[in-house]
Amino acid sequence: GGRGWEFSASMIRTCLGVLRRPHTRGFSGAQLGLNGAGAGQSTRGVHALHTERPSENSDSGYEAELKLQDLLMRGKIRDAMQSYMLSKTYGMYPSAGTYRSMVSGSLAAGFSEFAIETIHDMYLIGYKPPFEVLKLITSKIEAKALASGVLKILRTKEIKDLAGAMTAVHPDFFNDTLNLLVHRSKITRDILGELLREMGRNKVDLHMSSMTTVAQFFALSHDRLALKKFVEELSRQSTVLPPQTIATALKGLAVSGFALETVQMLKLWDSNKERILQLMKLEAPDEDEAMILEEFKQATNLDQSRMEKLTLDLGTLHECIHSASRYHLEDLAMIFWGLLEKSYPINGTTAPIDVFIAVAYVKAAQGKIGETFKWLRKLEACGHKPDLRDIRQVVSILSLKNAGKQIEKPLISRVQSVLDLNLVMAVLVRSGHASRAIALYDEAVTLRQRVKPNVETMDIMLLTSLTAKGTRRAFSLCQLVVADMEIYDLLPQTETLRLLCLNLVKLGRVSQALNILEKASELRRPIGTWSVLYVGRAAFFQKETDVMQRVEDLMAKLR
């Protein structure tokens, strides 16, 4: 009776074959050719699909996958690896889900090289690994070991498998791994250099996104020689350099203050112009190229009849101008200004505010007072309202370039607007001419002979005087400004207001400090309770009962 429950191996195989046929899921033969994805590489694939058992004692494809899954579930990773390698030699590959299990299992067991090879196999047979799988190898494997595993695949590609096909390499695998290593800060310059050299030797092309990623890496690490060499090497190859890559290289060199290298890079950009334009004529560029070319077309306005114009994006130009000025490289700054003038013609309100600020900064860096005022007035005439931070940058460099000079008269003679007054007052105070600043302020504002004040002018004057190392002249100017603000019913910005209250308390003017806080409260400014308590503490020590009562009332309102 018991023998009736025994099943032969052939019966089991028959039942499994009826339930799920091998060709619907599981191991299947796969040709190893890259179908053009290898960017010029050609490899002979396994032309026969090995769906039949290779010998009488071996399993069919689907049963082999069941066996592999069973080994993985039981934690027998080494046996699973051997089973997979044996099946792979006959051109049989598991499903994508089993691949993911093999990667995670082999990593957990410490077989990192096998995990790397397994992911590469996924690329070869058309299973694009999801980001989570790629992230596993970059997070679980130390960068040097990961690079070593990747290089091993490159260096063994000439080995033939049992079916006689050359072992292929898939460029997407190397590009994706490279991008992940760089973005996750898990790579050094030496490792990156070795990877790039080996990829070049094996003719594995960098994708356009990878070019920009590598350029960013060298730029952020301030390795200007490696950056320059990398971009020049790309330009000598048959590939077309994407605009983002050269823009990244330009920024990386310019913000580090390397004038000669930056100018050379500009020439390199110009020499690649024809290649970029030729690529635009291709009938079917791939998705990445099409996206980049569309951006380049918008940036250079290729619909114009003249094509000789060299164009960089505004952000790059702005950064380059600022950095060149910061390192006192006026000649380089003016080269960028010339490019900016060609690329972004300044015609009325169409010009971005950054253009005006950038040019004013360059003129200030050259110490040219008149030219600086000229560009700031253009900015004002177009209705742009500059940020105080930008004005302070212009003020700082103009003051630095004119330090020790008698600049009061040239400055004062140019005051024609509120913006001029704002600039002049700050430059005078920062250049050590506080007494002349007070006289000019009295002449221009109190007597109202030239301009009427606004809150921005008052604010920058207050901030400048309050941060002038506590000199008596600065405090005098501060008092004058505060009095005028009360007259014109103006209130400084919140941060300046807090700083002003602290200084008024230090000067013993507790009631005046509280007046400002009360007015700010009425205007619903976020003054905070700390400033009020600071004034109340000073009133307590000075025994000013009226002020203490007002402090209590104000605290009640704030609560």
From TrEMBL:
Keywords: Repeat. One of its GO terms (molecular function) is mRNA binding. It comes from the Eukaryota. Residues 38-60 are annotated as: Disordered. Signal peptide: none annotated. Transmembrane segments: none annotated. This is Pentacotripeptide-repeat region of PRORP domain-containing protein.
